[in-house]
């Protein structure tokens, strides 16, 4: 069973939000619940999920943590960033369980 990176998870959430207005509304209203159910995982209490609706009139810059080093990342650091590793570990991952792959089909967001 393959694990997904944080970027792959974000891409999948965006895809489902574009395809399904109910899913989009649920993701905006209660992102933690949608993420936990969609990827069959539990997030630690200290992990915050913030939803930002994109528009043509806004430009977003994601600022790295203050302790991030300036310059190019070496391969091990790049793996940590690409995989979403950090000081806070998220329990679980987006994997196939009981024959149902949560990452292929969006969850029924009308139940959230």
Write structural notes for this entry.
With 112 residues, the protein is mainly α. It has one domain. The radius of gyration is 15 Å and the shape is globular. About 13% of the residues have low confidence.
Brief summary of the model shown:
By secondary structure, the protein is mainly α. The protein contains four helices and no strands.
Q: Compute the average pLDDT.
A: 77
Strand content: under 5%
Radius of gyration: 15 Å
Please estimate the helix content: 25-40%
Write down how many β-strands occur, each being a DSSP E stretch of 2 or more residues: 0
Order of helices and strands: HHHH
Distance between the termini: 27 Å
Weakly predicted, low-confidence segments: 87-101
Largest sheet: none
> Strand pairing plus helix content: what structural class?
mainly alpha
Count helical runs. Answer: 4
Count of domains: 1
Shape: globular
What keyword list fits this structure?
112 residues, 35% helix, mainly alpha
Helices, strands, pairings?
Elements: H1 6-19, H2 21-29, H3 31-38, H4 75-82
